[in-house]
Task: inverse folding
């Protein structure tokens, strides 16, 4: 039997939990419908957190005026964003040109597959398959172009947000320990993740180029981007070149190399180097990471999966600074609450 005091505590917890669930549902709805603005803002915040120390260094250590320090940081950000935009544009151009050159190869490949299926007494209409492939190729090019335009507009919005954030930076302003802790942990994670993802993308690019695979640079860029998605991203990046390798190479060893070499690179960096460099990292349990990927991926798609880990880490850090909500922060870190039974 529970006494009246414990009963009131349980009722209070149930009421609080219900309100939290309702608030999360309402917040998820707002984030979903405002994703076109919220996603660029969050990406801009992470970029700002990386380049804010540049402003602090120029103002505090080098004694530069704040205006010039912010201007230099902005120029660095804009150069990097322009470089990313050029990479995306070149990737889209390479994809569109390669699709045209490989349309005949795809037709030949489909004919071989259908012939093999017919040998197995599985009836396939070759004409319908070839016609369907021919109809889909222009749609792929159009979709790719539309995606490039959407990415360009998002990059522009991110640049605007970063400009205003850096312009409002006050290097000498005192900040509470809570913000310093959150800044340092998130900044370290993002910096290490970007560095390792860049190394992964470059190695994948070089390995596929040595194998003479078309679009090796595009697959390197995709490996760089997908490496931000824990576990799932590396698998997708390894499997993406397979259709093109099958269409391009006649030797099975070349196809095996396209799969094994990038997969080995992803495994060594993701499972070997990254845990050693990050250590405990952001103190998120693997199950928490998996659920975060599912939740933010359902909410914002692939971009949500990229942002899932740092956003969840920020939530955990914020919860850990409130005594009432600290058990939830411990739960995200994989620590179950210590429940003492009443005698």
Result:
């Amino acid at each position: 039997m529970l006494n009246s005091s414990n009963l009131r505590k349980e009722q209070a917890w149930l009421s609080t939990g219900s309100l939290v669930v309702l608030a999360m549902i309402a917040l998820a709805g707002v984030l979903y419908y405002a994703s076109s603005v919220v996603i660029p803002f969050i990406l801009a915040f992470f970029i700002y957190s990386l380049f804010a120390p540049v402003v602090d260094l120029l103002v505090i250590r080098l004694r530069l005026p704040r205006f010039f320090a912010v201007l230099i940081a902005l120029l660095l950000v804009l150069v990097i964003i322009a470089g990313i935009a050029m990479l995306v544009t070149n990737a889209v151009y390479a994809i569109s040109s390669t699709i045209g050159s490989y349309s005949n190869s795809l037709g030949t490949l489909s004919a071989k597959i259908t012939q093999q299926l017919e040998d197995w007494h599985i009836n396939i209409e070759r004409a319908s398959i070839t016609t369907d492939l021919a109809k889909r190729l222009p749609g792929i090019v159009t979709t790719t172009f539309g995606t490039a335009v959407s990415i360009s507009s998002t990059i522009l919005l991110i640049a605007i947000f970063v400009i205003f954030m850096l312009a409002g930076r006050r290097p000498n302003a005192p900040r509470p320990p809570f913000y310093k802790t959150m800044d340092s942990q998130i900044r370290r994670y993002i910096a290490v993740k970007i560095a390792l993802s860049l190394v992964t993308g470059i190695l994948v690019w070089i390995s596929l180029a040595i194998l003479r695979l078309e679009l090796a640079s595009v697959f390197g860029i995709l490996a760089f981007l997908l490496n931000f998605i824990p576990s799932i991203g590396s698998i997708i990046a390894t499997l993406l070149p397979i259709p093109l390798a099958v269409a391009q190479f006649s030797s099975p060893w070349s196809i095996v190399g396209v799969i094994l070499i990038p997969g080995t690179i992803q495994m060594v960096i993701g499972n070997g180097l990254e845990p050693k460099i990050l250590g405990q990292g952001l103190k998120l349990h693997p199950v928490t990471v998996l659920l975060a990927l599912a939740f933010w991926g359902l909410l914002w798609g692939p971009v949500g999966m990229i942002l899932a880990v740092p956003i969840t880490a920020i939530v955990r850090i914020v919860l850990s600074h409130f005594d009432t909500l600290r058990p939830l922060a411990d739960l995200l870190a994989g620590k179950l609450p210590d429940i003492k039974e009443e005698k």
